[in-house]
Amino acid sequence: MTPEDWSDRTRIALKDAGLDEQVVAAVVNRALDEDFADGPDITTAATVPEGATATADITPRQAGILAGGPVAMAVFDSILGAGSFSFELRPDGTSLVPGTPAITVHGRTAGILTAERTALNILTHLTGIATVTRQWVDAVAGSGARIRDTRKTLPGLRALEKYAVRCGGGVNHRMSLGDAALIKDNHVAAAGSVRAAVDAVRSVRPEITLEVEVDTLTQLDEALHAGAQLILLDNFTIDETAEAVRRTRAGYPGVLLESSGGLTVGNAAAVAATGVDYLAVGSLTHSSPAVDLGLDLR
């Protein structure tokens, strides 16, 4: 299936979500190819009367933050055929109430049941990421700090997982290795120093956003002097983080600071209170548990 096979409603919803429809198509097609690898849905074909129609609700069994509705629409479009069914859904980013349907679809029963697992796999995974992200966002509310993801994503799902972070109220870090520079300890080791690494990147891409990871306050000073625009404070204590903020705001007020390593929802407020701009949370995309949603025919 290609995006041209989907309804205008689906394509508009994906565009409004900031999702590339070609990327979504690749994910949906790969998932459906796995389901149809050995032939059609034999169970549904054997048990569902030809031509039967039904209404099905996708309902959360626990609280959460919805994410992935437009992608689920693309799944049902791909199986049922655009325009052959009706689809009602709550907006992504809204709170889910256990027992209250988030999505309702009416169409051919066979198509609904064939699309069920792929749609739920995407919804439960993305909703899980959005739900955990919202917990972090709530933990730092009022501090001015923002929760940011990383590139610790599943292959092929980065765009969708980072979209789920946005649904939860977080913000995205790099989408790829080429849209910003992040100088880490191994780059510093290879270049010889923080200054040498920064100068090397600037010589190749002077316009690119440049972030430097530092492990100590001494490295922080070096990164500030070298002209880093963002600095990632790796495994700093609360006191070290506060001192890093003090030094940066005193002499380099335009430089942004990002805390990383050793972060938990429990200590997020204390870290945010130091005045950092971001908390980098890799677990948003690599460890968030799925939220339980189920599809049931009425």
UniProtKB/TrEMBL annotation:
Q: Name one Pfam family in it.
A: QRPTase_N
Pathway participation: Cofactor biosynthesis; NAD(+) biosynthesis; nicotinate D-ribonucleotide from quinolinate: step 1/1
Kindly indicate whether the keyword Metal-binding belongs to this entry. Answer: no
What's the EC number here?
2.4.2.19
Annotated ranges, domain Quinolinate phosphoribosyl transferase C-terminal: 129-296
The text of the family note is: Belongs to the NadC/ModD family.
Protein name listed in UniProt? Nicotinate-nucleotide pyrophosphorylase [carboxylating]
**Taxonomic classification, please?**
Bacteria, Bacillati, Actinomycetota, Actinomycetes, Nakamurellales
